[in-house]
Amino acid sequence: MEWLEHVKQHKKNHGFTNETLAERSGISVGTLNKLLSGATADPKLSTLLALANTFHCTIDELLGQKKELGFSMPEEQMKKYEELDADGIEAVSYVIGKEYARVLKERSSMPYSLDMPATRKIKLYDTPASAGTGSYLFGDQYSEITIYTNSKTEDADFAVRVYGDSMMPRFENGDILLIEGADSVEHGELGIFSINGDSYFKKYGGDRLISLNPMYKDIKLRDSDRIICFGKVIGKLKK
Fold it and tell me: What pLDDT is attached to residue 213?
């Protein structure tokens, strides 16, 4: 892994031991040892950001990569920027900094690869799918999140956040689920359902919805219930 040699060279140039680098960067010694030994093939972006900040360089410089700028500012916008006074430049810099921080926060839990995959945006609905007592799911209240496009996420149509603990230990409160839109799921599959207006994240059991946490009783489905399936759960985003 050529990129790892660049990371080691930065460490050597600064005269850091593993323990010193861990202290300066805030990365645990265990994580750092795995990275520097080559045991971690795809380090998290948050780890690389911490190293780059410690070495006072960009991630591309840290990894020995040269990344071409994929766009240029339109000439008309550039002219407007050049006419700004100090207050205007400060305002623009503030917005850029805020948006940059937002993007990094969205991506920080995803693995970083030298062959960075394409990204796309999907809807994350603000009202969570209950893993407990139920809550209404869909509406106009949602935000857009950026996810990497790969074999595990390419089928995701939208995302919802888990609320409750009835799907523990596999899924925890606050987890973001990736959903493939579907009007039905197979027996034993996980799905997002609406029962008489309340939304649930459960395993489909044919005549009932099943919780993974044995502390919760099954939700039996009656002929009189208004049941809607919104989609199949195909995974969750890394925290």
Answer: 92
Domain architecture of the chain: domains with CATH = 1-114 (1.10.260.40), 119-236 (2.10.109.10)
DSSP helix/strand/coil, 194:
strand
Please report which confidence band the pLDDT of residue 135 belongs to, taking 50, 70 and 90 as the band edges. Answer: very low
Crossing angle of helices 2-14/29-37, nearest 10°? 130
- For 77-102, what is the mean pLDDT? 76
Separation in Å, CA 91 to CA 79, 87, 88, 178, 213: 16, 6, 5, 36, 50
Where do runs of H (alpha helix) occur along 56-179? 59-63, 75-82, 86-107
Indicate the Cα dihedral angle 91, 93, 94, 95, nearest 10°. 90
